[in-house]
Design goal:
This protein has two domains: 164 residues, Spore Coat Polysaccharide Biosynthesis Protein SpsA, Chain A (Alpha-Beta Complex), CATH 3.90.550.10; 81 residues, no CATH class. The protein has seven helices and 13 strands. It has a seven-stranded mixed β-sheet, with helices on both faces. It has a four-stranded mixed β-sheet with strand order 5-13-7-8. A two-stranded antiparallel ribbon has the order 10-11. The protein is globular. It is of the alpha/beta class and 254 residues long. The protein is 41% helix and 22% strand. Helix 5 crosses helix 7.
């Protein structure tokens, strides 16, 4: 029988971990790959019967690769699930079916994002495909993509129909903090690529980003919620170029 391991990366996820583990009990083995949490994550995970391995965190790509190495030959497939995600029963049934199909190296799954408690179907948060079901030995994460990691597959990628559920940003402060991290990372990548900001970027890029989120990605279908998200993401597009300008100024002063 094909063996499936569910792997959950954690750091201080006491709030979510047991519900997440409960949702992946259809797997043959549940591994919590923890970054030395300081809350009750490890204790709560073991209470639910999960195996726990602790591994120092460097970045998401290397952490997921380390988790794949830890699974080794104990499973044929790995399902990566974040602690704030849940696998509904229809998706669990579909996963059990597709891992028996030959030829595939991985499967991507659509994701339902709940932002501030609201299912968000526009502005870029749907279908939000995530490549999370990986055949052991046929998948690795690109080590150069430390945030918004990318899976490298040695074979075809399939697409699942049923979505996983993501309890994304719970409140505005959490959303803003995460966007600040992402924006700084993206600015750093642009700096390393030698991209210099032009005066028009501070106006045109945010406007284009808003139009892309609001119109192209149909943020309008979420009403006020979609408008707020589209405006916020346009603001962080502006902030990205401000940070990029600062990086070039700092480099010139050294």
């Amino acid at each position: 029988m094909t063996r499936l391991a569910a792997v959950i990366l954690t750091y201080n996820e006491a709030r979510h971990i047991q519900d997440c583990i409960d949702s992946v009990q259809f797997a043959d083995w549940v591994l919590v790959f923890d970054s030395f949490s300081t809350d009750d994550t490890v204790t709560l995970a073991r209470e639910r019967g999960a195996e726990v391995i602790q591994h120092a965190f460097a970045d998401y790509a290397s952490q997921r690769n380390a988790a794949l190495d830890a699974v080794g030959d104990r499973a044929d497939w790995v399902l990566f699930v974040d602690a704030d995600e849940r696998i509904p029963a229809p998706l669990a049934d579909e996963i059990r079916v597709v891992i028996e199909k030959p030829g595939y190296a991985g499967w991507q799954v659509p994701r339902h994002n709940y932002i501030f408690g609201k299912l968000t179907l526009g502005a870029g948060w749907h279908p939000d495909y995530q490549t999370r079901l990986l055949r052991v030995g046929a998948a690795r994460y690109d080590p150069t993509r430390k945030v918004h990691e990318v899976v490298l597959l040695d074979g075809p990628l399939g697409t699942l129909e049923n979505p996983l559920v993501h309890h994304n940003y719970q409140h505005m402060a959490q959303f803003l903090a995460k966007q600040r991290v992402y924006t700084a990372y993206e600015a750093q990548i642009m700096f390393e690529q030698g991209i210099r900001p032009k005066p028009r970027n501070y106006i045109l890029q945010p406007l284009r980003h808003f139009r892309w989120r609001w119109l192209t990605l149909k943020g309008y279908q979420d009403g006020w919620h979609g408008l707020r998200l589209s405006l916020l993401m346009a603001w962080y597009e502006f902030r990205k170029y401000v940070i990029l300008r600062g990086l070039w100024r700092d480099s010139a002063g050294t």
